[in-house]
Amino acid sequence: MAGEFGAVLRRLREKAGLTQDELERRSGVSVSTIRGLETGKRGNPRMTTVRQLADALALRSGDRKELLGAAVPGRRGDGAGEAEVNAPEGGAEHPGAAQTGAAQAGAAQAGAAQAGAAQAGAAQAGERAVAPPAAPPPASVVRAAPAEAAEQLAKAVAARWQREEEQRRIQDPYPLPVRWKAARESLTDHWANIRRLPPGAPSGPLDLSGRLEGIAETYRSIPSGRLVVLGRSGSGKTVLTLRFVLDHLRSRTPAEPVPVIFSIGAWDPTAVTLRDWLTEQLTRDHPGTAAPGPGKVSLASALVDSGRVLPVLDGFDEMADGLRRPALEALNATTLPLVLTSRPAEYAAAVEETDVLTSAAPIELTDLTLDDLDHYLPRTTRKTDRSDPAAGAWQPVLKRLREPSPDGAPAPLATVLTTPLMVALARTVYSDTPEHDPVELLDTERFPGVRELEEHLLDNFLPTVYRRSRPGERGRDPERVQRWLGHLARHLTELRTPDLAWWRLGHGLRSSTRTLVTALVTALVIGLVDGAMSAAFSGSLTGGVLDGTVVGLLAGLLFGLVHWFTYTVTGKDVQPSAVRLRIRGRPRSTKWRAGSRLVIGTLGGAFFGSAYGFMTGLLRALSVHAGPASALETGLVDAIVFALVFGGAAGLSFCLLGLLETPLDIVSAVSPGSVLRADRRTVLIQLCFWAPVFGTAVGLGAGVVVDLLQGHLGRLVMDPLSSLVLGTISGLGGALGYTLTLTAWGQWCLLARVWLPLTGRLPWAVAAFLDDAYQRGVLRQAGAVYQFRHARLQSRLAQGRRRG
């Protein structure tokens, strides 16, 4: 799709006689985006981007239709798409151009789609089509923006989970046969409620039994749109939700909501409402939805509130014990269609405390059979016997499992291998590994029961996957890997969340330790910068060291206090940036609100400046042996001057910084690594912008403030050289202090890249280690965060870390 669109765009651009730079100036779309679209490196172009390019190229109806058809090939016969093609925004070719927004907004409705198709057909025949009466433009925008965002969200979700399915090797060699049956009646609501029947209508149970490949059809057969998936640990609930999302999206119509997987184990229903939490998670995993939407809310909020998102809530059993009851009560307080997964015992306990999930049909996953193992495990091993190509390491094991035992009870291994998790672990440890023979699993003296077998498979999983050296990489020591992963598992257990977010790795430390490390490292960095700059300007190494020590300590103290009050006291996290900084090619719809930025920047700068000025003035006066009264007066005067200088400079810098911020695209690929790289890029651009702007504002502002206050606060002195030194040091120091204490990437550098590796809790190359663990199948990706492959593995590693 991307290649076809790029070829069409390049041909139409060359036909118009425009270069990529000229098209950028006309359309407002950055040249890097245009180049990426034409080369096929950027796929799934946004409709707003396509319209901007079409307007800039001044395309006629035929060319415009071709460009849109290449961008959305699945809709070439859709009336909505053709209406959008033939009614350009702001164009003068058609009299009905003003009706474009209404035609596009009503495309989801059958009548509007037919009208658009009729108009497109008339235009193709060379006739002047008379568009139907248009709805008011504001209403069309309100309807169209979430609808278009939902389509882009569907593409992003489908692409993400398709990649994840491939990474988890679910289709290698084929998916394990996950099956289910209807859950027991005590966990089921009245069938009349599930089937949405009127009072008095006869009702009966639905036939909900099925297999993995039919999960989307099973869900659509439930009129209430509410499904509960129950299954014991490792029974395949997560794989089922992944397959449901992909199958549902494959057959989804524009009128249906977009299924999005949320790890409900991270939700605290006593602190945040369901809709607000869904909005936060959607913004985290799809940063483009943080863009402004209709009604002065974000696109994420508009998508959730308008019912365009189908929540797939995975891991109800992973919630803390005291939160399941309020969570179930909060779910019952809404009528949202949803899918919920849980282990049966935890869900049944919550039902006992409150009630079943209203209007929800529950199903329960069943165990794998020996026939399933016979069909699956032999196909996962290499062929070792040339005389019998079908023979493999698992044949003698499976044959023994079918033999009756003396007491008639099934063998422990047969019980263990009834869940897809244990089958996957057994495959990893014993398939294609000549040094391991699965026959040892039948040793009842070594493994007398189910628990011993499961612990053996869990404990040998890491040594097995890390014994294999990946191409281009040296092997890792399994013991050190186990220690590092054990720290991460315990970190998640203490935080009571399954989500391993790189920006929260420092939360494994006590809040006091985290703040102290932040203050000390910030003091060290700013002190070194200040000392070097002071020595360079003054020519005195001793003076530079003294000034750097004083300024570093003061800056560390003040920035540490700002970090403490901003995040530690409030309990908030330092979140990655949901915007990017662009000077050219900014979307026309970007809104900028300067009021809040001006207030926050001015107040923060004034607080910092007053504290900094008071301390430096006091120390300067005491250094010349001034009396206490004189020293206090000097400190107060400097506090007023620096509060005005730093307050005005910070407010101005924050406002100008807001001019560069633009929301991310919804279809942007999101992974932990991409979020880290995007945040690093944004922070570095902010640093490069903040340092000169803030430094210049401080240097110039100091002279202006001194002139304005001259005589009112006594005799003030500020020569040009002092202003230059103050501006330069303030620009660099302020930018570094802001980066290290108030940004997610800065905290990542301080804690995850320095402190935690220094104390042996994590490796030095943390990002590479996490990505390597993901590639080896130890971790999985859930949007912007990692998760352990299974809660059982996380629990086992956390227990080992505690014992260690």
What's the short version?
The chain is mostly helical.
State the separation between the terminal residues, measured CA to CA.
53 Å
The gyration radius over C-alpha positions equals: 31 Å
Quaternary state of this entry equals single chain
Helicity range of the residues?
55-70%
Q: What global shape is seen?
A: globular
Structural summary, described in words:
With 804 residues, this protein is mainly alpha-helical. It has 31 helices and 11 strands. The strands form 3 sheets. It has a 7-stranded mixed beta sheet with strand order 2-1-7-3-6-5-4, sandwiched between helices. Strands 8-9 form a two-stranded antiparallel ribbon. Strands 10-11 form a two-stranded antiparallel ribbon. A hairpin with a 2-residue loop joins strand 10 (779-782) and strand 11 (785-788). The longest helix is centred in the last third of the chain and has 38 residues, at 672-709. The radius of gyration is 31 Å and the shape is globular.
Explain the layout of strands and helices.
Layout: H1 2-15, H2 20-27, H3 31-39, H4 47-57, H5 61-71, H6 79-86, H7 100-105, H8 110-124, H9 137-167, E1 179-182, H10 191-194, E2 210-211, H11 215-220, E3 226-230, H12 237-250, E4 258-263, H13 274-285, H14 299-305, E5 309-314, H15 324-332, E6 338-342, H16 344-353, E7 361-365, H17 370-376, H18 395-402, H19 412-416, H20 420-430, H21 450-467, H22 478-495, H23 511-538, H24 541-568, E8 579-581, H25 594-623, H26 628-659, E9 661-663, H27 672-709, H28 720-742, H29 744-758, H30 766-775, E10 779-782, E11 785-788, H31 791-803
Parallel strand pairs: 3-6, 3-7, 4-5, 5-6
Antiparallel strand pairs: 1-2, 1-7, 8-9, 10-11
Helix pairs in contact: 1-3, 1-5, 4-5, 5-6, 6-8, 9-12, 13-14, 20-21, 21-22, 22-31, 23-24, 23-28, 23-29, 24-25, 24-28, 25-26, 26-27, 27-28, 28-29
